[in-house]
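Lab notebook, design round three. We kept the backbone fixed and only want residue identities now. Task for the bench partner: fill in a sequence for the structure below.
Input structure tokens:
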């Protein structure tokens, strides 16, 4: 199924036509959405779901979508990513397996194995070639050269891997018990730095700066920390509250606290988005330490359910976000008729551009 043939030579697809309404992706997964990733070469979106499948959608110039392919795991899919060429999709799941889907042939195969679910997969483009990193609840990080069946190396983590991100040469892993392991991928088997999260509650997401000199951490307690790797930049570290609501319009107490589910950095401007269990999405400028507001003061109206995952396309013109149950309230929160959809938002400059420095 060679639907990607010629993708590398196709012209860049523009953002969906600038309408006020976001565009809903056709034929979404049948269960909660765990992970979104755009191809680095063209406007194809990979979506991992708790229905055990990975779906690939093509996004047209005006935002219309078309399902192009689907492949399965033996359990819920927890993470998806692409290789640099945009012709392979990598995924990890609750079946303890990492799988590769070749978009040129339409074939999938297992390429990684752990002793517990694989929570995060990331493609690393090194000077020596591409490597797959997998982080698991078996408390290991493994590196795989896809030409060989066994991992190149296995790194013991202090706890279960909950989240991981890469911006070469930086790799950051967030685990249970709030441990954060920072790796310099020129020496990938030994942590460059180990620390405890600056946030007091469970780590939900880590996301590396495009400049690879730091990362953002989001927790279940409606808070984000901006953290630089080098001690000399420590004065720039800070944290802030977000994804909180007042108990009532009369009480400005911000006492309703929601998990920060995902953090995505804009590939051009270096600003970032946060999304939460409260169904809201915000864009932020870490250098100005401020929220970016558009004309309506909020980038988005609250969604009709939690927002578990987000992704910018390669140009930063399209922002994809999922609306589905994120299990933040356990089994009791999974009510019938819960929304399950993927939306595409055409990014406006005033939402994602840095604020000009104050004179």
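Proposed sequence:
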């Amino acid at each position: 199924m060679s639907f990607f043939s010629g993708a590398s030579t196709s012209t860049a697809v523009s953002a969906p036509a600038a309408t006020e309404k976001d565009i809903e992706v056709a034929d979404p997964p049948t269960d909660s959405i765990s992970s979104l990733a755009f191809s680095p070469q063209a406007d194809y979106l990979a979506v991992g779901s708790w229905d055990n499948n990975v779906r690939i959608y093509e996004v047209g110039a005006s935002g219309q979508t078309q399902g192009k392919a689907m492949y399965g795991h033996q359990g819920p899919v927890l993470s998806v990513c692409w290789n640099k060429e945009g012709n392979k999709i990598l995924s990890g799941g609750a079946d303890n397996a990492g799988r590769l889907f070749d978009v040129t042939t339409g074939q999938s195969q297992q390429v990684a194995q752990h002793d517990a679910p694989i929570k995060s997969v990331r493609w690393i483009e090194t000077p020596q070639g591409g490597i797959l990193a997998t982080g698991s609840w078996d408390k290991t990080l493994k590196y795989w050269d896809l030409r060989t069946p066994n991992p190149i190396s296995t790194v013991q983590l202090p706890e279960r891997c909950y989240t991981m991100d890469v911006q070469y040469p930086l790799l950051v892993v967030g685990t249970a018990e709030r441990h954060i392991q920072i790796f310099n991928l020129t020496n990938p088997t030994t942590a460059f730095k180990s620390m405890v999260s600056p946030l007091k509650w469970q780590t939900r997401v880590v996301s590396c700066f495009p400049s690879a000199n730091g990362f953002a951490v989001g927790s279940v307690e409606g808070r984000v920390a901006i953290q630089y790797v080098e001690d000399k930049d420590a004065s720039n570290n800070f944290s802030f509250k977000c994804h909180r609501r007042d108990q009532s319009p009369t009480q400005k107490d911000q006492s309703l606290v929601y998990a920060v589910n995902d953090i995505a950095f804009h590939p051009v401007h270096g600003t970032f988005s946060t999304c939460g269990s409260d169904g809201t999405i915000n864009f932020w400028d870490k250098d100005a330490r401020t929220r970016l507001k558009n004309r309506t003061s909020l980038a988005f109206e609250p969604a009709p359910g939690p927002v578990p995952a987000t992704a910018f396309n390669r140009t930063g013109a399209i922002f994809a976000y999922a609306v589905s149950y994120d299990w933040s309230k356990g089994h009791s929160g999974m009510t019938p008729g819960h929304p399950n959809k993927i939306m595409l938002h055409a990014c406006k400059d005033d939402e994602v551009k840095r604020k000009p420095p104050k004179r």
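Keep this in mind before ordering anything: The first strand starts at residue 23 and ends at 24.
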